[in-house]
UniProtKB/TrEMBL annotation:
InterPro entries: Methan_mark_5. Pfam families: DUF2112. This is Methanogenesis marker protein 5. It comes from Methanofervidicoccus abyssi. It comes from the Archaea.
Length: 145
C-alpha cells in the first residue's frame, strides 16, 4: 500500500478512488479532521497551535501571505509523506478546491520538486472521458506496486 497525495487535496472523489485501489489517500480533510477533534486545541473553530505558522514557514517564505503559509502548514507534510501523487487540473470548484491560486502553484511545485511518481489529469467533461480518467488512475496505482 502506497501513500498517494491527491490534488485537489480535499477531493473526496479522488480519495475514494485511491482507497478502492488499495492505497492510502493523503488528504487535507483528514488533517483538518484531526485538528477539529483534538481536545487539546483551545481555539475552535481556528484549531491552530502556536507551532502551525512555524510549520508553514518551511514551505513558504515570511513574505508570502499568511493564508498560503497556513495552508502549506497542512499540505506540505502530506507532500513530504507521499509515495506518489495524482493531480487533477481544470476541475470545477465542487470537485475539491483550495481556492487559493498561490497555494495551488506552490503545491504543484513541491510535488514536482519531490520527484515522486505523479499522474497529471484533466477533469473529464463527459462520461466517456470520465471512464478514461478512472482507467488511467487504475493503471497508475496498479503500476506503483
Amino acid at each position: 500500500m502506497k501513500k498517494i497525495f491527491i490534488y485537489p487535496p480535499n477531493s473526496l472523489i479522488l480519495g475514494d478512488l485511491v482507497e478502492r485501489f488499495g492505497h492510502k489517500p493523503l488528504m487535507l480533510n483528514n488533517v483538518i479532521g484531526k485538528k477539529v477533534r483534538t481536545p487539546e486545541i483551545d481555539s475552535p473553530p481556528m484549531n491552530m497551535t502556536d507551532e502551525d505558522p512555524k510549520k508553514g514557514l518551511r514551505y513558504a517564505a515570511i513574505e508570502v501571505p499568511s493564508g498560503v503559509r497556513g495552508r502549506m502548514a497542512l499540505i506540505g507534510p502530506l507532500i513530504e509523506e507521499a509515495d506518489a501523487a495524482i493531480i487533477m487540473d481544470e476541475a470545477p470548484m465542487a470537485f475539491g478546491c483550495i481556492g487559493c491560486a498561490r497555494t495551488n502553484e506552490l503545491t504543484k511545485y513541491l510535488i514536482r520538486r519531490r520527484g515522486i511518481p505523479k499522474l497529471n489529469l484533466i477533469y473529464p467533461k463527459n462520461e466517456e472521458e470520465a471512464k478514461i480518467v478512472v482507467q488511467k488512475i487504475a493503471k497508475f496505482l496498479n503500476e506503483l506496486e
